[in-house]
Amino acid sequence: MRLEFTQEQLMIRDMVRDFVQTELKPVISNLESKEEFPAVITSKMGELGLLGMTAPEKYGGSGLDSISYALAIEEIAKVSASVAITVSVTNSVCVYPIYRFGTEEQKERYLRPLASGKMIGGFALTEPGAGSDAANVRCRAEKQGEQYILNGTKAWVTNAIVGEIFVVLASMDPSRREAISAFIVERNFKGFSFGKVEDKMGLRCSKTADIVLEDCKVPAENLLGKEGDGLRIALHSLDGSRISVGAQAVGIAQAALDEANFYARQREAFGRPIAELQAIQFMLADMATRIEAARLLVMHASMLREANVQSFTKEASMAKLFASETACHVASMALQIHGAYGYSKEYSVERYFRDARVTTIYEGTSEIQRLIIARRLLA
Fold this sequence. Notes:
379 residues, alpha+beta, 4-stranded antiparallel β-sheet, 10 helices, 10 strands, globular
């Protein structure tokens, strides 16, 4: 199967590629070493419309199709998985659910600053006891007059610290999964604070931390959808987000292959470039084949989403599962080809190796993706 993209999709891909190669690549190693959030870069991305790809122009977004969105995330991830996940989370699980399920007033209020990059968005579902088991949310929401009072702690929130707007899942009755609701929560709401900042293996310039809600007052008009819609909103949004993580994983894998290919041509052993050794050639061939298969799965899921099919859950999980495990394998092989140098922070493959690992964990672990796929097959 050969992927055929429209001229517009290719133009968007090339625009993003040029931007990240020119603006991001020269500074990313320094940002990663200092664990510094690339605020200037994300602001410029907002100006290019990359933080509003999932919102229509009516609300300040760029209204890109799902295929263009996946292409853009892949190109960003080739240079920085950290920046790619910042863009992905803002788009997939903050901008999109507000656009898809929000009221007209919510769309007008929140989508424009998010899409322009003036504000960064996040999504708060995971808790110390609720991650893979999304229905086990213990964060409480209680209706009091014209506001909801939220109490609880959210863990592993991407874009915490730097984010301004978060879609937060809370339950009005922890004994019933049907009682989970979604809320649009601003960081300046009374009772909202950030907790422990995670010291992560990879994604060093992406901020991840707890959100602590202590009698956090959320206006009633910030309920997203209806009471009890929270789990449905979360799972629907995660379907799209898994495709985006799949695209991120493909980008990491492609960057690792490119570095390994270049290194193998330059590095000599036994009097010739190691690229001439069959062992290295077989490794490169397997890496390239897996990446192409992963890319096809990601694009297939993107096409189904763009076609508005009733459900693309299975295909999104397949894409995320295979692409993330491919990224881990390819990054490992790229490091192996580099030998001892691959273990040094002087070479980018060391970062790709660390960054790839989390793609099999967030937005649903590989084990959860296999459960989802199996249930769809056996339904």
